Known about the structure:
The chain is 54% helix and 6% strand. It is mainly α. α2 (39-52) runs parallel beside α3 (73-98), α3 runs parallel beside α6 and α6 packs across α11 (257-269). The radius of gyration is 20 Å and the shape is globular. 34% of the residues are buried.
Amino acid sequence: TGASSGIGAKTKELLEADGNRVINIDLKGGDICVNLASEAGRQKAIDELHRLCPDGLDGMICNAGVSGACGNLSLIVSLNYFGTLAIAKGAYDLLEKKHGSCVVTASNTISQGAGRMDLVDLLNNIGDEKRILELVNELDSSSLSVGNSLYVSTKYALARWVRRVSASWAANGVRINAIAPGNVNTAMTATMSTTAKMALNALPIPTKFGLETLMDPEEIAEVIAPQFKETDLETITAIVKRYYDQDTWKENLIFEKDSFELLQDILEDAGELGERAEYEELVQTEYAKNAVKEK
């Protein structure tokens, strides 16, 4: 998605140069032109993908999005988060057929503390788009800080969602990763105010240190494109790393409550859990704790 400009366009260029067929889903200038901020647009895109690729997909790159400076708070939430999830989930069965890969473009801004964790929790744990938009529309759309906060929140929620589903998707042969590209010279960043650009330069990119410039889209595209070359070792490495990053790689036998809740999140997102259970009712850690003490 979003391959008409910026990072998406450069990634498309690289993939096509390697002989791959790329289908661009975008609002304008795409092979499938739809509005991914709407439920109807998302469903049309998914239906078209199934029509064009009945045998499956080797990869899906969810790149479409808008910046926090776009002035439309609903669009930030509906496109950046709900549009991305809908396309990734809608293409999942096609990816499963070919053991393909899915890359979701998140953002390095999630590490800067500007996001609203109440909104992140609503996105990840409730997921009621209509109700969330009602709450978002009560905020000040003229405030750049509000827009940026929502942008960061949607990207934070995307990164969290990727981590939650990665193990269950990998179990079915589908790799999913998030790319946090940093500050890139695209049409989105071109509209930033002078103050915003100064703020970006205050957080230098290692490869551009001292240059006061943004990265080129090619630099990010070169990271995304290789993930679609099938290599068994890469698959194994990715699965192992996911388990480690998710903290599902245990150092002892004690099944902590946080791990129990994370396991339920993964099963729930995979559609395999109908009802959540209470940790205290199911888990007994006495024997494991005694074993650790004896050791």
